[in-house]
Each structure stands twice: as C-alpha cells, then as structure tokens.
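Researcher: Please generate the 3D structure of the following complex. Treat every line as part of one assembly.
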Amino acid sequence: MCLAIPAKIRKITENVAEVESLGVTRKVDISLVPDAKVGDYVIVHAGFAIQIVDKEDAFVTQGYWEEYLEDLSNGVNQDK
Amino acid sequence: MESTRTNKSINKRIDNLIQSISQINMGRQLNIMEVCGTHTMAISRNGLRELLPPYINLISGPGCPVCVTSINDIDYLLEIIRNYDVSIFTFGDMMKVPGTSSSLYKEKSNGKDINICYSPIDAIEFARNNPQKKVIFVAIGFETTIPLTSVIVKRAYKQSINNFYIYNAHKLIPPALQALLEDREIRIDGFLCPGHVSTIIGSKPYKFIPDKYRIPCAISGFEPLDILSSIEMIVRQLKEGNPKVEVQYTRVVREEGNPTAIKEIEDVFEVTDSVWRGIGNIPNSGLKLRPQYSRFDAKKVFKVKNVNSKEHKTCECGNILKGLKKPTQCKLFSKVCTPESPVGPCMVSSEGTCAAYYKYERFKIR
Ligand code: SF4
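Model: Done. Output below.
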C-alpha cells in the first residue's frame, strides 16, 4: 500500500496539494505535513502526504525509479 | 546514456554491499526478519535472497495489514453487509481475503454495494454526496494508515457527516514485535523495521528491542540498495555486539517521526488489545475510537449475532506471519492455494508472503 516514490508539490490550496511524480499529476491531502511548501517532495500514502523528503535524496530516488520503470517497460522487471 | 550510467553505479554499489555483508560470517545462520510486506515484495522481486550469503536467512514477519486482520473481523464485516443496507469502501487487497464462508468479493458478486477505494477520502466524499446511504470505510493497516483514518474521522465529526462509519481493525507494530520476541519458538537475529510505519512513529518506539532483547534493528527504505544497506547495518551490529536502532531510510524517517500524525492518532484513538490472524491476541497492539468518536464505530452501530469463525486447517499463514515457516513448507502452496483461488490471506494480498513467493520464487530452491 505504500508508494516509495516521492512526489513534488506544484500547488497548494488549503489542505490539498497538486503533486507530480514521474510525469503524473494528482491531488493529495497535506493535513499531516503542515509545513509542506510548493517545491517540496513528499511521500504519499493512500491519498495523503505523510512526510516531507530530504530534497537531495529525493532526486536520488527519483532517478532510481525512472531507471527502474525504464527496465519495466523493456520487460526486465514485471510487477503490479 | 544517463540511465545506463546510473544503472552501472547501482550495480557496483550492490556488489560492494554484498561483499561487505559476506565478510561478516558469524559461523551460524542469521535470521533477519523483514517486518513490512512491501519489503517482502521487494526482496522477492529483486531476487535479493540469492544474492546474499547462504547463512543469511530472510524471514517475513507480521507486516502485511490484510494478512493479519483476524478472520473474526472479516466474518463480522460480512455479517454487517448481509444484514444491513450499507455501502462498503475498502482497499482492494481486502476483497479476496477468505472469511469462514465468504469474502467481500463474493458478496459483491451477490450484488452488495462494495467499492474499492484508493484513499479513505473517497469514502468520506461519497458519504457527503450521498447522505441517504450508510457508508463504512474498512480501516485496516498499521501506523502508516492510522493517521489517515484519524483525519477522516475528525473531519466527519467537524462537518457532521453522520452517515459515515469505520470498521476499525487497525494494528500497532512495536507490540507485535515484542510478542514475537517473547515467543521462544522463534530466534530472530535482527529486524528490518518498516520504513513508512517508522516515518510516522520515528525510531524511538523500537528502542526496547536492542535495549531489552539485545537485537539489532535497521529502519529500511524500499529499494534493493536500501534493503541491502540495512542488512549490512544489522550484521555489523551483530559482529560488533552493539545492537541499536539504526535508520537507513534517513531521507524520510526522523527520530521523532511525524509529530502531527502521532497527535492525530492520539486525538482519535486509544490503545487496546487486538487479535492478529494466525498469532492471536497481542496486548496493547490495537486501537479503539475514543468515546467522543465512538458513534463512528461500525461495530457499535451495526450489531450482528455472534460470528463463529473457523480457520482453514491446513493453511500455515499463522506460522508464516510469525516467521516459523516459509510458504514452500505449506502443503497447499501453489498446488491448491494460488493467487487466483487463495486459501489463506498470505496468498491474497499483494504484500503477502505466499503471494510474493508464488510470483517470484516458486521455482527456486532456497
Ligand atoms: S500457501 Fe495458501 S494455504 Fe499455504 S500458508 Fe500460504 S495462504 Fe495459507
């Protein structure tokens, strides 16, 4: 149920943020991370941001995932 | 190409980690338990078991929320559905979990109003937009999910959404680990602690594990590199005889966790005992709604006659959730029990140990 890919906050309206992760945009509730700002990376779980990610590390993870997904589309990995 | 370069550097880092783990041979088998179902999947999917030296035995623990939901809870929920006109919202993994005589999936095919949701927000929105319906959100999961339920219950309270309820089967991880450690049947040499549960609770709630039981802990992220680094932390702690709680997943986990989320949990719930499927009752491992919020408790509102639950006799899920057996040691595994027709919950959930072995390791020996 956990998604380990960080998502970047694009826009905040009250307790809802528009986030983007690997090119996909969606809305998440940010009630649990009141300090979140536009530009922050967050971990999202079932429609809620649950923590702000250390920015430098977020890039490492995103790079890693892009590569993983590339493998996936090349049929190297098969999951979900 | 950028990506090929990263790929190479990741492979190199994996090699280095395997080497440094292999250098620490304690001359006996080391049982390292991964507590989180997402770790179980990552280990199986990435073939990490094969990469590690043979004396490192990775065993799964009770960290798949669907798997540990007691059969009694499933049966109770099914009784509510049969006896009341309600709309159920649940995470998809719950659909096929077998109760004694039915499952949510079967009831849905019988025409009951059962909806798969991605977030509890979907359930409360539906309740708001359909005031004539009685909406129950099936609240399962550990500390990662509990604050979400808390936010939603508070929202229903503040906005007087009076047709919204939760079927609460939430559970807490640290008391379950304590129960496993008290159970002398299992020897655990180290815990890979769950990354996202720890995102909420931080590292302190695990401190009793090294302090009282002298067992190393590493809070791990979810990529192969994270998991191998965490295993390396554990074997190094063992070698040095210095057990502690180390955080490998530092990009997300802080020592104090997420204080806002912890407060949300405490505002809405209080600690109580809870029955874990396959394990039994574990003191202080569950939650109940505080009196102020008890009118959202589906069990109090929708009363049913006593349910008589019976587990499948041959299913080994209990021993698997305790780390005592591997799926391949279950007689039914892949012969009778498959993801298409699961006998036990460990085969249903996408995070279940039997499902992970079935999908990725069924033809391997170790
Ligand atoms: S293989 Fe099926 S029957 Fe056997 S333990 Fe796993 S879920 Fe239970």
